[in-house]
Amino acid sequence: xxxxxxxxxxxxxxxxxxxxxxxxxxxxxxxxxxxxxxxxxxxxxxxxxxxxxxxxxxxxxxxxxxxxxxxxxxxxxxxxxxxxxxxxxxxxxxxxxxxxxxxxxxxxxxxxxxxxxxxxxxxxxxxxxxxxxxxxxxxxxxxxxxxxxxxxxxxxxxxxxxxxxxxxxxxxxxxxxxxxxxxxxxxxxxxxxxxxxxxxxxxxxxxxxxxxxxxxxxxxxxxxxxxxxxxxxxxxxxxxxxxxxxxxxxxxxxxxxxxxxxxxxxxxxxxxxxxxxxxxxxxxxxxxxxxxxxxxxxxxxxxxxxxxxxxxxxxxxxxxxxxxxxxxxxxxxx
Length: 334
Prior knowledge:
By secondary structure, the chain is mostly helical. It has a domain at about 5-235. It is about 70% helix and about 0% strand. A two-stranded antiparallel ribbon has the order 1-2. The chain is globular and about 50 Å long.
């Protein structure tokens, strides 16, 4: 193992330890401030729980990334840091006070994503000229913006976000593609997820809140973008495939039913699974198992274009199978 990877592992380990140790005093502080997640008819939880664990998670990641990029300076990395910090601040204000205008929150996301996309050099392309650059940039912008929000939507049961952070982070790290901008930061995200998991497993002691899920979704989306720009486009699609499928299919189904898609709901496949299986842990563990398979498919996709296409197809089938496994069955009459 190279010295650079050793440094990355050391920073990631420190990040995970910081998150794990910071959460206990943070819980005390949040309780004093009465920052609660109060269950309602759309919740997957039944007990009042402190919300705002993302202060430790996002804060730990930002510190870890700042340490790494001080050793390996990178313009794109600096932009990701700034964007993540801005989203963390706005999301915390919404967690704390509630009711921040949707336009303000979404506008900050648009700026954070759009600035990075706009500053990409013309020679950095996912399609390598097969599609007009302006069209590719629009698709990348929309995909990243959607990923930022779907990551937030998927943070609805205990353990699921920590599992996704850990597995997708490890998956990106083992790709060994652009270790400075993707590999090392991915380890930092994975470590933060692992540090958070013990506090959010089983009977959760704390929830992440938007201050965690929104900026982390933004960061992971940006890292997946840079993974795709390095030629690993299939791996960038495969690693978070379950999240892509659950959130996107659920959104489309709600649109077709004429529902207000901006309102909270309990119709995601993972939420149905939690009700059907009677356990958040059972759902999160199944997603973790699928994600390990997706890591293998992502690694295989680096081999060649035909293998990449086959790997994407298999990832979609495996994710669809898990969604079907989670889905509630309609009751039979008679």
